[in-house]
Amino acid sequence: MSGLDSVQYPSSNLQGSYGWTDTLKGVYYGPGSLATALPKLLQTLGGTKALVVTGRSLHDKTDVVKKVENVLKQHNAYGGTFYEIGQHSPVSGIHNGLKAFKDASADIIVSVGGGSPIDASKAILYFYQQEKGGDYLRQIAIPTTLSAAEYTVGAGYTNEEGKKVAVSSPQLAPAGIILDAELTLATPDRLWLSTGMRAVDHAVENLYRPLVPPPIKYLCFAALADLFEYLPKSKASPQDINVRQKLQIASWMSLWPLKLEKYSALGLSHALGHKLGATYSIPHGITSCLTLGPTVALKAQVASQEDKEWLSKALFYLREQNTGSLEGDVLKLSGLINGLVKELGLESNLEEYKVPRTDVPKIAELAVGSKDDPTFPGVVKLLEGLYPN
């Protein structure tokens, strides 16, 4: 068992509990849904003045933010736009966003973009609550990628030392989510497809994540089926709105909102991604392309019998034949993941991102928690395999 897994809690028991996040009041989906969904959510949440939080590229190079601003203006709820959120949500941008939120006298945030502005908005609301006290104010998330940050209660951001840190509270989960595929058309193909692989990462790692109830795992099987089908179709036909909408829904299924009684991390691929992403400026979608297939291959050696069974079942939903052994099935799933990365044109290696080979033991230790963890040698070997021969 890896140190990332809980000894006390197997990935799925025949007893447990399931709860929806207390915060989430509605998910609206469909092409063109922005115009009707945003006013409904503002009314439901009692938001009177919204600060739009986004990134510079989306603000400067597309009309997506303008569309959101126009809906807010039509309902006299526009309080300004803050667009200094960079990749991995640097804390300097969060502090500036907090100042903008207060200067606007806003009472709600509308985040637009990928995981960085959505997580940064959570952090802004976290620091605002720490300063002002009382209940957390709310966020409406309008994602334009498939990274699924809108379904979680935590916010990862990069501190002054370049390290990924996090804040978490059930009340930080976005209170409203709008999945409007029309707003994703301007998302660069590489970002769109790589965050789709991030959704694949969510769906796979939820199969061995502790405390996830069985019905959620079956949603993950459905997510995998759709992601494997529609990501290549989206690459072939980037303007197909229906395919993009199906991918947004698949991303939702890959990380279905949960109210867990105890925190449980997703898994090794995500842990490696968190250590690689901020430190070496690798987008999280790309870290999933790098680490997920090899992580699943390692699971064929080190996972529990139950976790291997869940991974093996994924083959049925991908319309693939079983191999005759659990270990063989898990290795086959690893190969299918690597094949999808290649099909989407997302192959890369750590050398391309200037990750020194000498850093490998440190990255592995940070990901598993200790050099004494029994999986540590396997994780070192996994990372070494991410360099060209």
From TrEMBL:
Residues 194-371 form the Fe-containing alcohol dehydrogenase-like C-terminal domain. One of its GO terms (molecular function) is alcohol dehydrogenase (NAD+) activity. Gene3D superfamilies: 3.40.50.1970, Dehydroquinate synthase-like - alpha domain. Residues 27-180 form the Alcohol dehydrogenase iron-type/glycerol dehydrogenase GldA domain. InterPro entries: ADH_Fe/GldA, ADH_Fe_C, ADH_Fe_CS, Alcohol_dehydrogenase_Fe. Pfam families: ADH_Fe_C, Fe-ADH. GO terms for cellular component: mitochondrion. PROSITE patterns: ADH_IRON_2 (PS00060). Keywords: Oxidoreductase. It comes from the Eukaryota. This is Uncharacterized protein. It comes from Postia placenta MAD-698-R-SB12.
